[in-house]
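Our preliminary data section would be incomplete without showing what the modeling component actually yields. Below, a chain of 397 amino acids is followed by its predicted structure, encoded as tokens that our downstream tools consume directly.
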Amino acid sequence: MEQVISAGAPPAGVVTNFVDPVNYSSNLVTCNVVLLVVSSLVVAARIISRTVLTDWRLGWDDHAMVLALIGTVIFSAFVIKTTHYGLGTHIWDVPLATYKSHYLWWIMASFAACPASYYFVKLSILFFYLRVFNLQAKLRYIIYALFTYCTIYYWVAFFSVIGLCNVKNKTWDITVSMNCFANGKLVSAIGGLDLVADVLILAFPVPLVIQLQISWTQRVYLLSVFLCGISASVVCAIRIAFVIQARGSTDATMAQYHVVILFCIEHYLALIAACMPTLGPFFNWLRPSYWKHSHRNALGFRSNTYDDAEAFQHTWPRPHTIMSLDDISKRGSIEDPDKAALKNMDLPYWLASQLCREQSARNLGNVTRLYNFEEREESPNLAGEEVGEDVLVLQRD
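Predicted structure:
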């Protein structure tokens, strides 16, 4: 019977076990499956919020998020496949033939798929900023610079993993303590640049929110929505620290198990956090007050009607019609119609109105997307047949 050679030498006093080795891969599989299901549900809720519950208009940020989810599914499949060949098992319990012919290639595919799918998460966030905030040219250039940074960094990371690992895998020798991630430099570099991207992207909306004329309670709430991604950044920092600590380890399959599981948690948290600011219509749809203040329209979908300001206060705007100021003047008089400039449709009412007023102060509103807020005065020219049920109006106090 041919003798099986292990991929690594066991520590003193430890016996190689190819039959029933210590294996933590089930934890990694469970983590991926559970978080993938949650992420898929969150992305589905985002799409529902942007279609069925609003105006059936998907933006570039939504398309990028769908691509990110597809990339995440591929990443998860690679990770789960790698567990079949030793990930989560001590290297001395993995046959050398399995390690060289299967494990090295699947771990490379996993590390390459992560930045590729993560790239689309960052794109989705940046596209969302462009859609929500009517930015001045200077701020738009910052967004474009972040686009460039993410594009260069993530794709360089993708091709670096493939290129470096292919070269080292082909020349792999049993005398080498670990594979192409042995010294941790590549993974540390990827993690460090990833953390920089997180900080830059998460910090961008902070000054814009702080400048809004709203209470500090509302600012804290808004910041908490935009900064949900901090959780992913914290996991990224922990992963970098772990990689540095694990440098020089001879137990490659177990060390990389910890790195990969942190990769997975970070990736899923980032994907979920990127969807949070867009889920307002979906959360509102789940509220009992939504059904209390709703009716069926001719198409069978639910559309909101409001009997009191409090009910509307918790409802997020629904865009219907884009009109010029001339069209508005023909249909009825509106107080300060040029101050209705607003492109946002996913944020709460009080944020939407504040953004509208901030933009009005800068004379940014000439062609408007109209929204129906409870603040409009009851007027025969603004409701019913003359304006139409699908024309929604935003007014100041």
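The longest helix spans residues 96-132. Strands lie at 294-296, 302-304, 322-323, 368-369. Preliminary results of this kind motivate Aim 1 of the renewal.
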